[in-house]
Amino acid sequence: MRIVVLVKYVPDINADRRFEDCRVVRSPGEGTLNELDENALEAALRIVDSLDDDARAAAEVVALTLAPEQGDLALRKAYQMGVDRGVRVTDDALAGSDYAGTAAALAAAVRRLEADGPVDLVVTGMAALDGLGSVVPALVATELGRPALTFAKKVALADGVLEVVRETDEATETLTAPLPAVLSVADTANTPRMPNFKLIMAARTKTIEAWSLADVGLDAGLVGDAGARTATTHAAPRPAKPEVELVQDKGEGGKALAEFLLRHDLV
Amino acid sequence: MTNRTVLVLLDPAGEVRSSILELLTIGRALGRVEAVTLESPSVEALAQLGAHGVETVHQAELPADLRGDARHLSGVVAATLAAAVRRTDADVVLAPSTFAAKEAVALAGQALGAGVVIDAAGVSEDEQGRIVGTKRVFAGSWDTTSVVTTDVALLTVRANTVVPKPADAAVATEVEGFAVSVDAPLPTVTQRVPVVRDAARPTLEEAATVIAGGRGTGGDFGPVEDLADALGAAVGASRDAVFEGWFDRYVGQTGVTVAPRLYIGAGISGAPHHRGGMQASQVIVAVNSDPEAPIFEICDFAVVGDLADVLPQAAEVIRAHKAAR
Ligand SMILES: Cc1cc2nc3c(=O)[nH]c(=O)nc-3n(C[C@H](O)[C@H](O)[C@H](O)COP(=O)(O)OP(=O)(O)OC[C@H]3O[C@@H](n4cnc5c(N)ncnc54)[C@H](O)[C@@H]3O)c2cc1C
Ligand SMILES: Cc1cc2nc3c(=O)[nH]c(=O)nc-3n(C[C@H](O)[C@H](O)[C@H](O)COP(=O)(O)OP(=O)(O)OC[C@H]3O[C@@H](n4cnc5c(N)ncnc54)[C@H](O)[C@@H]3O)c2cc1C
């Protein structure tokens, strides 16, 4: 069993997230492993944990990111959780990639990994907490020609068939597909394990492979600004809200609330 | 007004929800609006589409094995959208910002080689006639503008972006079938249980007013629902309240993203994960017993107090006001 987990390096939601020249600032020290990808890592590691001894010994979990050098931080975190291999795709030509470019590059890297053996499963988070597109998993699946089982809140694998339960806005669904497939997990799918001390120490010195676009065999014209079909032309912080009107409830708080709503025509 | 063709996704096709009426309103400002469905629209839906200026509904004729529950899979909806664009030579596709529609729109964009904007909070055209989507990102703290540089533009649009308006004149709506083939590998749908909607309340995604209850409710959502009824609001929760089993749907960046005219958070601390899903609301109100609650930082109005006292009193005043009107 070989599983590739896609992990994104994103600005910390507690840091001062911002744009400069219409680009997200991804400065070192303010970035982190996308929290929702911890659920993806957990799902992959649990699948491996559930294998019998021989199969587990032969299994490999690869963490893959598309990021500048500081993205290593996401891969180190993945190593701490217990993955076997960390790969980063970095290339100046990737700057400015939109959904299509991002998915094409990630899929190309998965195909490159297939040069040394089949990849049975690609696992992702349900969203990246910066772009919040939630579309990369489905796009990667199509690029790879595999079925996508997305937003899983329950995951089971038996006899090479993946089964997930998910809740969409419209319905609760059970989906199945034989491997190879692409899986995205919701944050309700599991509770990510805490990194253990031994792995934390080991993660510091683990090798991170850095690949260029040429390494994954992708035409630079398909990604980055060159391949982008959308362009961000403007980015500005929203004006600060006026000071909050704070009322202490001394028996009339509800009245004050209702009056605020009426005054602002919100009823 | 140009001679653009704008396709609006209507899935499911039983009713035309307010988010779809918004898309039709946005679409009419860009060109001629047509609808795309994967099943036959109800009589009520057709009447509403007609009132909103839709002359043609393009209804997918799917291969037999995809006509059941599988027709809602994003791969199928995407193939339908892509085929509809090719058939009508459409310039713009609009869909609501649900997780399912986001995937379908992105996949259709991939098939068409076209630019995609997800979660637009506004759609317009620039001086060169290109489609532009505005977005509220980073928990509503930044505004961005994205230009679609391809001939076809596909966008998902958040609810409460515009006030839906019917067309100046109603039209007769015709349904035209068109064949769709799907070659993407799809999962099998072994079970599908549709969500039953509370007919008495607007849905969280679409409501103009949302009240969310958190751990501060201590499990009693009575006061939250009371005020929601007085205001005609949708009810949501924090993720922690849902994990406690007190409510079923939560607001936040992994839950439902809302941007209503009015959001009221009751007994909610305002964690970044929750803020990510509501901070773009136009007016934010909070009721919290802790004067240091982080949610107060992003509020327009707040009451420091016990929600069990404050909410029922507010509901009473509002009901009295409505009765006197
Ligand atoms: C604020 C903002 C708005 C944007 N809006 C648009 C837009 O409207 N249209 C458009 O075409 N592009 C847009 N982009 C660009 C888009 O976000 C990037 O292409 C992005 O890297 C992929 O999309 P996502 O971040 O939304 O990922 P999602 O689809 O939300 O990510 C889902 C999962 O995919 C995996 N994944 C995603 N990206 C990577 C990665 N780089 N490396 C490893 N794994 C990954 C992770 O497992 C993640 O959990 C936007 C970017 C930002 C920051
Ligand atoms: C990966 C991840 C994703 C997450 N996604 C989401 C998400 O999408 N949405 C979400 O909501 N959360 C999400 N969370 C959880 C989030 O981080 C917070 O834990 C959660 O929002 C807190 O819920 P709360 O505000 O109800 O509870 P608390 O933080 O416990 O706050 C309760 C508040 O109620 C107040 N209070 C207590 N009693 C009363 C009373 N009688 N009257 C008035 N006020 C009272 C308290 O002062 C306190 O401020 C996520 C977490 C993770 C790790």
Can you describe this structure?
The complex is a heterodimer of chains A (about 270) and B (about 325). Chain A is α/β, with parallel strands linked by helices. Chain A has one domain: Rossmann fold (3-Layer(aba) Sandwich). Chain A contains 9 helices and 15 strands. A 9-stranded mixed β-sheet of chain A has the order 11-10-9-12-8-1-6-7-13, sandwiched between helices. A two-stranded antiparallel sheet of chain A has the order 2-5. A two-stranded antiparallel sheet of chain A has the order 3-4. In chain A, a hairpin with a 2-residue loop joins strand 9 and strand 10 (about 160-165). The longest helix of chain A has 15 residues, at about 35-50. The mean pLDDT of chain A is about 95. Chain B is α/β, with parallel strands linked by helices and about 325 residues long. Chain B folds into 2 domains: about 5-180, HUPs (Rossmann fold, 3-Layer(aba) Sandwich); about 210-325, TPP-binding domain (Rossmann fold, 3-Layer(aba) Sandwich), CATH 3.40.50. Chain B is about 25% helix and about 30% strand. Chain B is built from 8 helices and 16 strands. Chain B has helices at about 20-30, 45-50, 75-90, 100-110, 220-230, 240-245, 270-275, 305-325; strands at about 5-10, 30-35, 55-60, 90-95, 115-120, 120-125, 130-135, 140-150, 155, 175-180, 190-195, 210-215, 235, 260-265, 285-290, 300-305. A 7-stranded parallel β-sheet of chain B has the order 5-9-4-1-2-3-10. A 5-stranded parallel β-sheet of chain B has the order 13-12-14-15-16. Chain B starts with a strand and ends with a helix. The mean pLDDT of chain B is about 95. The chains are: A alpha/beta (about 270), B alpha/beta (about 325). Chains A and B meet through helix 4, helix 5, strand 9, strand 11 and strand 14 of A and helix 4, strand 5, strand 7, strand 8 and strand 11 of B. Strand 14 of chain A pairs antiparallel with strand 8 (about 140-150) of chain B. Bound molecules: flavin-adenine dinucleotide (2 copies). Chain A: GO terms for molecular function: electron transfer activity. Chain A: Heterodimer of an alpha and a beta subunit.
